[in-house]
Fold each of these.
Amino acid sequence: MNETVHVAITRQVKPGYEDRFEDAIRRFFVETLEDSGSLGAQLIHPLPKTNSRTYGILRSFASEQDRDRFYRSDRFRDWEQAVQPFVENTYERRNLHGLEAFFSNPGLMRHPPRWKMALVTWAGVWPSVFAVSSLAAPRLSGWPSWLATGAVTLIVVLVLTWGVMPLLTRLVRPWLTMPTEKQSITKR
């Protein structure tokens, strides 16, 4: 069974080449949306009013095979060659699994602790399930319970994916990225 694969890439852009890099990657995104198995891509800009030149790229694929085919393709190699004058030589690419896809932060090398991710996820799931269940209950009262549950969970997943979790993770980002006591000790 194939499972959607999310990949996070961080690229360091050379000073003064930010606009050229952004133009090149937008064109590349449009070209590669036609690729079989490519489910989408997103560019994450460095935070405003910082000196960071680190860009995040999130790509989604229908399967691991589609991901591997994409990164072995001539199209990808050609793009890497074309963008080389705009970027530093090294970059990081890694797969995101489960909750990590919601909590990706290209400016950081690690994700928040799992307990923080679980707490924020719960804070998004609980009100979403309550609201969707309350609103949908009158409309689904005649449905078999298994089908009503399926409809409610489908709506909750859509609401979480495109609304609640992106907003919630943006709101609590400072807390999520704040080092825990254990992380603070190991950095000294």
Amino acid sequence: MIVCHCRAVNHREIEAVVADGARSIPEVTRACGAGGDCGGCHPTIADLVVESVEAVAEALTPRRAGVGAAAA
């Protein structure tokens, strides 16, 4: 999906720069240009940053067997 129409940047590009360490709209803009013109995509960029960071954190959180399972 195109997120920044001014710069033709899609969500995959934004997810990639977040994976490389971008954590704010200005950091995303510096990395790929998204959000650098009209700013209409800023809310979507912010959402993608949060979602991507949460996904990485969840992937890094160790899962314990049996947590939340009913006792037999």
